[in-house]
Structure formats: structure tokens, C-alpha cells
Design goal:
Elements (H helix, E strand, L loop, with lengths): L15 E5 L2 E4 L4 E4 L2 H4 L8 H11 L12 H12 L5 E5 L2 H20 L5 E5 L8 H6 L3 H4 L9 E4 L4 H7 L4 E6 L2 E2 L5 E2 L2 H13 L3 E5 L23 E4 L10 E5 L1 H4 L15 H14 L2 H25 L2 E7 L2 E6 L7 H10 L2 E2 L1 E2 L4 E4 L7 H21 L1
Parallel strand pairs: 3-15, 5-6, 5-7, 7-10, 10-11
Antiparallel strand pairs: 1-2, 2-3, 4-12, 8-9, 11-12, 13-14, 14-17, 16-17
Helix pairs in contact: 2-10, 3-10, 11-13, 12-13
Enzyme class: transferase
EC number: 2.6.1.11
Cofactor: pyridoxal 5'-phosphate
Length: 395
Amino acid sequence: MQNHITPNFVFSPMIPDHGKGSRVWDREGREYIDLAGGIAVNALGHCHPALIEALTEQAGKLWHVSNIYTTEPAQTLAAKLTEHTFADKVFFCNSGAEANEAALKLARKYARDHFGEEKNEIIACVNAFHGRTLFTVSVGGQAKYSRDFAPLPPAITHVPFNDAEALAAAISEKTCAVIIEPIQGESGVLPADSAFLEAARRLCDQHQTLLIFDEVQTGMGRTAKLFAHEHYGVTPDIMTSAKALGGGFPIGAMLTTDKIASSLGPGTHGTTFGGNPLACAVANRAFDIINSPETLQHAEQQGRKLQAALTALGEETGVFQEVRGMGLLIGCVLAEPYRDRAGELIQTALNHGLMILVAGSNVIRFAPSLLIDDEDLEEGMKRLREALLSWRTQA
């Protein structure tokens, strides 16, 4: 197949054709176990019948009317999100980057409204990932994603993840926001320490600073709770969501309180497609399934099984030196002899009929469907074992 897409993507040689549940078939009919989940997007697997039904029903009614109007699907989804979180108001958009862009813009606008234009500094974490817009790529603490696009937006500081002392030293009365991923996903599936998030909340309160949790990857049941910060008992002022929110249909959301949302007056921010009826109809159905006790309990159980299986494979093969994560967001750190070769391993796994991910150059990431059953999980581990043994002999 000739490629007419810009070269910023390096595509896999396998071209997916269709999927069902946790299995995918390519154009030649070869089957794969999907433990990647579209990078934590396909929370209910491929082609879930309830999502197909919701999309089909809405497609026959209304696709798009612009944000001059609101719609029942958007209002219903916003009500569900606020009912089950700390938030009072929701801004809908199309992606995690857009949700974070909105959160960061709101933080600066709120600080300007209440404290003046000097309170504009943003603190983020080293090796964070918050999106690919110029603002979010600048806030993300990875130079490899931002250096080619300088000059970057100013007044952004980075502190080491899980370093409460560094955060305390960096924050000041000029800080308008601190943004943190409860689990750093793209940088190796690194969970935050409770003490770090608790310190962030305390410091933000002391300095009248907004605490933003980026739950784009960790939210919507991924860690076996609706949102990952629930594990820590720390509540943000603003939270972002996307990825699994639409179960595969593009949608993002920024959630906040009435007081903070009041700074987004008419015309201060917007989006053409955000909150469109198709996306919200699918997300409504996905939300109901994901937020059920049965799904969250299943995700917790399957996450424990997957972590145990991966730990056993690491002990057997010597390829993994650490397995970490929460629920069904799991990272396997490669042992020293295989350091920084994660890209090779996922290609070998693909050759064995298994779809997995990297999280940086030294971590293999797993983010399968929250509904993955024992049969698919066991078959996935069987294929992974074969891939590990094969790759180890070549490495």
C-alpha cells in the first residue's frame, strides 16, 4: 500500500482490517491478541455492540450543529461526569491535548482574573506528556518533543516526578497551576507516590494555585477506578480526560468546579467539533459500561492476573526486571542486558500475533480492554512467552 501520509509516523508493517473484542485481524486474515488497546483508548475492546448501537442510532438523528447549540447527548454526558467526580462543569473537545490546552488556558485566565497578570507560571514534571500542541508539548517535560518547535511558550518550570521537595522549592505566589499525571504513562508507567500528590495539593492550597490532574490515559476505569486520583484520595481543581472516554470515538473533556469555570466566559475558548452529538452519544454508552461495578471489578481482577503473569515471565526469561502499574495499565521495565530495546521487542511480539506498546525506550506497556477475558489474556501471555524466548536468543 502506497503511503500518502506525512512522515512523522512510522507505521507498523501490519495493516489492521477489523477487530472484535480483544482480537484484531490484518488484511491477510492473520489474527492478533490486542493488549495495546489503541494506547489505552479501546477500553471496551473493538466493535462493542453497545457502542455500535449508540453510534448508529445517533447517526440517524443528528451529526453536527455547532456549539451555538447544546444537545441532549452532550448535556447527558456532562451530567454523568459531574455526578461521579468532584466537578461541576465540563468543557468538551476532541482529544487529550485539547483538554490539557483548555485546562492550562483556564488556569492562566483564572489567575489573571483573581490575582493579576503576574500569576502566570506553570509547574509540570520532568518526562511528563500532556499532548502535541505547542503549549502542551512545552508543558510536557520532554525536550525531544519540543526542541524543534522553539521558541516555546514561557513561564513553564519542570520538577522531577515524585520529588515533593523540588516542587516546594519551585512553587511561588506567581504559580498559577501545577499539572501532574497520577501515573506517568508515556514515560514508563510510573505511579505517583501518595506523599507527592498530597504535597502538591497542600502546596497549591498554600499558594492559591490550581492543581491539574492529567487523567487522559489513567482515567475511565484504566486503573480499576473511574479515575486514578481516587486511589490517592487527592482531589484536583481541574482534571482532563480523553482516550477511553469515547471507547474509540474521538472525544476529550476538561472538568472543573463552578468557581473556576466562571473564568471561561462567552468567547474565551471554543472548539468546532467538541461535544458533537456522535461523540457524546458513544461516550454516554461507554461511560455507563465502564463505570459499572462489574467492569471496574473485572479490570482489577484481570489487572492482578496480568501483573502476576508478567512477573512470572520476567522471572522465567530474565527480560523484565520490574513490573509496575495499576489496574490494566502496566509497564515492564527491561533488564539491563536488554536496556533501551523495547521497540525491537514489540516488533517480535507482533510477529508472534501480539499487539503491545512501548512507554519510552526501556518499558513495555500493556493497556488492554477492561473487558478482556481469561481466554484472551492467557493466549496473549502464551504468545508473549514465545516472543520473549525468541527475542532473547537474538538479542
